[in-house]
Amino acid sequence: MSGGSWAVRVRNSSGRRAAKGCPVIVTNCVEQGIAAFGLGSPCSTYYTRARGAPALDRGFASLEADFTATLNAIRTRAPRAKVAVVGYPAVVDDNTGCSWGTWHQLGTVTKGDMPWLDTLERRLNTALSDQARKAGAVYVDTYSSSTGHGVCANGGERWIYGIRTA
Known about the structure:
single chain; 166 residues; mainly alpha; two-stranded antiparallel ribbon; 4 strands; globular
């Protein structure tokens, strides 16, 4: 997701760094959207009712644990620091969905999956907010002020661009 994306870096079985989180989910949604010819909501089905659901739940649990450890480390190293946790902007808040196949939006993610991606982002922001509160940090909400300016918005209303091709 453009404008920043949540990703937790881990080592895979070969010892190489591997990303997990939103970049992987969006990649899966792009691939599933292609396979579904832009129809339905294959990605949300995969992550809510199929094999992807347990992995998504594990990913959020891992994110929360890693984020807690990070905030604790900051407090240990800088006990008097004022810590701010900045949430993610409204990337796909437009429930009408983006144009299928438009890469400056979300490529081949289906319109049917857009509301689920928004729900996922809200869940992420809630997790960040909760962890910030527990750690005594300030949470900065960018979602509310950016609503209507996500990847599906037109022209000058769009603050966030979707998939960047090389």
